[in-house]
Amino acid sequence: MLKNFLMDWAVPFDLGVLPENAMPLLDFTVPGHPRRWQAASSVLERAGRDPAHRHLCGVVLLRAGLPHTAREALEEAVAELGAAAPGTDRHTDLVRADLATAYAHGDAWEKAIGVLADLLNNWPDPDLTDRHGERLATRLRELVRHTHLKLWEIDFQRLRAEMFQESAAAGEITRSQRLSWARTLIAEAEESPAIEPYDRAAQVLTSLIEEDTTDVVALEMLVRLHAAAGSDSPGLVELTRRRLHAVAPHSAALRVSAPRSRMERGLHWVESSKESLALLDSVRYSEGEGQVAWLKLRLLARARTDVPDYAFCAALSALDQGWLEDAHRLLTPVQDTLQDVHRHVLADAFARAGQGSS
Predict the structure, then answer these.
(1) pLDDT score recorded for residue 358
(2) In which element (H, E) is residue 115 found?
(3) Is the pTM of this model over 0.70?
C-alpha cells in the first residue's frame, strides 16, 4: 500500500527536544520489542506532568503504532506550549513536526500537509538549507506526491475492475482472471476505503468457492477480506473459515492476530476509540477528507463489531445527515455492547433527527 513511505520518517523528528530520560523508552518501542506496550502504558500515566512529557508520550505512542492516541497527546503538548505561531519558537515547531507525522500515520494527510506547509511557510531559513527545514520540505513533497498517487491508484484499479467486469459479462473470463478481478477490487478498496469494492470482491470469490470448495487461494483471500471489511452475512464468514480449515488447517489466514496481554488489549481499545472520534471529527469538519473519513468509519463499523465506538460514531455521522435507517443498521450488530453513555448520546441524536432510537 502507498502508506509504506511513512516508515522512513524518523520519530521523533529531533531527539534533542525530548526529556533526558527518553532514550530507554524509545529503545523499548522498537517494532517487536517485548516491552513496547509497557513503555506505552508507562508514558500515558505520566503524560499529564508537563508539555515535555506529553510530547514524549506522543512520540512513544507513535513509535508503538498508536497514532491516534499519539495525536491527542501531541495536540495537547502544542496547545500547552503556548500560542506561538509557526516559525517563532523552534521547540514548539519540532513538536508540530511530530504531530504532522502522527496525522500522516493516522490517515489525516490533509491535516499533516497543513501543519508541514505552515511550518515551512514560516521557517526562519527561507532557503531551507538547514537540516530541519530540508527534511520538512521532503516530507511535505512526499505527502503531496502520495496524495496524488493514491487517487491515481484508485482510478487505475477501478478501470481494471471494469475491464474484468466486461469480460465476465461477455462470458470471456477464466478462473485465473476472476481471481485477478477480486485482487483488483480489494486493491481499490484498500486505497478508497469503501465497502462496495470489498463486497464485489467477496461476490467474485464466493462464486469461485461455490464451484470448487477446496480452492485454497480463493478461500484465503475471502477469509482475509472478511477480517478487513467484515460482512453482512456472519454465517458466510464462519462457513468460509470452516472450509479453509478443512483443506488448509495451518493457513496463515486463519491465525487471529488479537492482542495477547491485557495491557496490549487496553491500549488498542483506547486507540480504536480515539480513531473513531478522529474520523467523526473529520466527517463533520474536514472538507477535503470528510467523505473518505465517512467511508472508513462505515467500513470499520462493520469490520470491528468488537469495538462499538466505530458503529457509535458512524451512526452519529449518519444522523447528522438525517439518515435514520442507516444509523439503525449500523447499530444493530453492537446493540448488546453499547455502553450507557453511548445510548444517552444516541437518544439525543435520534431525537434531533426526528425519531426515537428504540
Answers:
(1) 46
(2) helix 109-121
(3) yes
